[in-house]
Amino acid sequence: MLRVILLVVAAILVVGFPSDESSSTTESPEQTRLKDAKKLLNKINKESGLWNNKVTIASWNYASNLTKENLATKVNVSLQSADYVKKMWRQVAEYPWQNLSDPDLRRQFQKLSVPGLAVLPDAAYEEHQNIVSSMENTYSTAKICEYKNPNNCDLALEPEITELLANSQDPEQLKYLWVEWRKASGEKVKSLYPRYVELSNTAAQLNNLSNYAQYWLKDYEADDFPEQVDALWQQLKPLYLQLHAYVRRQLREKYGPEIVSEDGPIPAHLLGNMWAQEWGSVSKISVPFPGKQIPDVTARMVEQGYNATRIFRLAEEFFVSLNLTRMPDLFWKNSILEKPNDREIVCHASAWDFYDGKDFRIKQCTRVTMDHLLTAHHEMGHIEYYLQYKDQPIVYREGANPGFHEAIGDVMALSASTPGHFKKIGLLDDDSVDTEAIINNLYVKGLEKIAFLPFAYAMDRWRWSVFQGKIKSDEYNCRWWDIAEEYQGIEPPVDRSEEDFDPGAKYHIVADVEYIRYYVSFVIQFQFHKALCERAGQYDPQNPKLKPLHQCDIYQSKDAGALLGSMLQLGSSKPWQDAMELISGQRVMDASGLLEYFNPLIEWLTAENQKTNEYIGWKPTTKRCVKTRAELIKSNKTNSDCK
Ligand code: X8Z
Ligand code: ZN
């Protein structure tokens, strides 16, 4: 009997199913076209998977060991891959995919028809690669001298400078670190940036887009996306203004009115972060109720002997508790979770998909701090996304939009860093929920999440204008500060000139990474948090007996995990509005989750600012930005001559 079955199976395998035969003779022209289209996509999918894998291996090897040889290999492999992309792109351009009846196939071809930088001619592509690698290398290997100690000139951004900026309360030292970092990074890459802009724009035009900003924006699949971003900012700005006014007052009380004025922008070096992008460290000097516990678990983590692996295992455990996928063995084998001391690497944390469905890695110079615990969740969110969509075709192995990719780990961290959760895992004793504790907790979170919004917006406001030619290379730096002042209400600690290049002191500018993704992420992560909390049965706006949004912890909710997982599995196979609808029932980005989450804090800050009669907003800075340093020196001299 078994033999008969085997024979039949073998016969079927050899000649195919009889129905196959008959269907091929009666196939309609459209069916044939669809079959051909699928065949072509399959071929492209296999080939591009192999190329992506090769390029990623070479890029990883360089980023994790910044040698000339590794750079040469990376550029070489990228060039070969770009040649493949160009051939594939021409083939797609000649293929009449636009009138295929299957929308999914059209979507795949559409994506393939805009492949990005690889369409540059070989020499231009190589030049672009070299410029970005060189800028990233300068940034990643920059060192400065210790304050008042010219004998130690080995301070790196991670960890030394970052930790000093977060912990020092000496304004002169902070100013020194701020200025020196910009000399060692931004200023050194200033001359490379205009050519980078030019080549990026050329690539965009070859992709049939007017400039590189348009190329970045196409991933957001909405013509009015910049308007959507701006409308969200108009909604969120009032919160930011309250936080800004409160923090400025606290800093004035700490550092004095000569350094921090009553109604001006905040000096950027006092906010505990090199770019004033998140202000968490100023909670130490400004927390609303100092007698009450602040949810900073760094000391506890150190006490309990945490190390990098334990931090990442803790993050993994959160994902697993939702029934999401655990990190594969290869992840633990290949990731770099600590800064090596035998070579230079790119320390800026990142998560990598090697496009073979098996190899996924994180590279992070992890320190035992609460910040890094949150970053570990952030990075692992990227890996979880990779794992969930690993069976999609290569063109769909990306987030619904780049903001979605950035949001996933942060959504986990919103739950994992509630005082309740920290208490559960022994990192906090007190998880009381009286008003003072709630305000302290939301204040620390607000310094991280609300302060970030205008920074992220400003980053790409500047770059959009640069790529659109509205900001020219001889006004890069001063326009950078105009925008930072307008959105963030900050000012440099010293006068600046066009001989400085402060944008180049930030990783994503030199590494060619679009930034509005983080702005989008910081809005939609609260939308996701709200939706998942509802699904977990933890939160219901109609039921005041349940916890408020800022106390919700979706830990162990398989239902929330299933909902999130179903969205992650889509990759970019559907427009982001569909993915958003799947998880939240809404088809738009909506700030109301964030507003609701922070509502108690905003009410408190508004009342407090009223009590102290704080100036809300800021008057123009008195700091100057001019063309040359000589101009500054000359006018400073004139000033002192007059005294
Ligand atoms: O770059 C990152 C991550 C890697 S995607 C560490 N972030 C932004 C930054 O550091 O500027 C996370 C939030 C903002
Ligand atoms: Zn990220």
Question: What does this molecule look like?
Answer:
- The protein has helices at 2-15, 18-25, 29-63, 68-94, 103-112, 122-141, 157-167, 171-184, 186-189, 193-206, 212-217, 225-255, 283-286, 298-303, 308-321, 329-334, 370-388, 402-416, 419-424, 435-449, 452-467, 476-488, 507-510, 516-535, 558-568, 576-584, 592-611, 629-642, and strands at residues 143-144, 155-156, 266-267, 350-353, 360-363, 490-491, 496-497, 625-626.
- The chain is mainly α and 643 residues long.
- It has a domain at 29-132.
- It has a two-stranded antiparallel sheet with strand order 1-2. A two-stranded parallel ribbon has the order 3-6.
- Strand 4 and strand 5 (360-363) form a beta hairpin.
- Helix 3 (29-63) packs antiparallel against helix 4 (68-94).
- It is globular and about 85 Å long.
- The model is unreliable at 1-22 (pLDDT under 50).
- Disulfide bonds join 145-153, 347-365, 533-552.
- InterPro entries: Peptidase_M2 (IPR001548).
- This is Angiotensin-converting enzyme.
Secondary structure: elements and pairs:
Layout: H1 2-15, H2 18-25, H3 29-63, H4 68-94, H5 103-112, H6 122-141, E1 143-144, E2 155-156, H7 157-167, H8 171-184, H9 186-189, H10 193-206, H11 212-217, H12 225-255, E3 266-267, H13 283-286, H14 298-303, H15 308-321, H16 329-334, E4 350-353, E5 360-363, H17 370-388, H18 402-416, H19 419-424, H20 435-449, H21 452-467, H22 476-488, E6 490-491, E7 496-497, H23 507-510, H24 516-535, H25 558-568, H26 576-584, H27 592-611, E8 625-626, H28 629-642
Parallel strand pairs: 3-6, 7-8
Antiparallel strand pairs: 1-2, 4-5
Bound molecules: L-captopril (X8Z) and zinc ion.
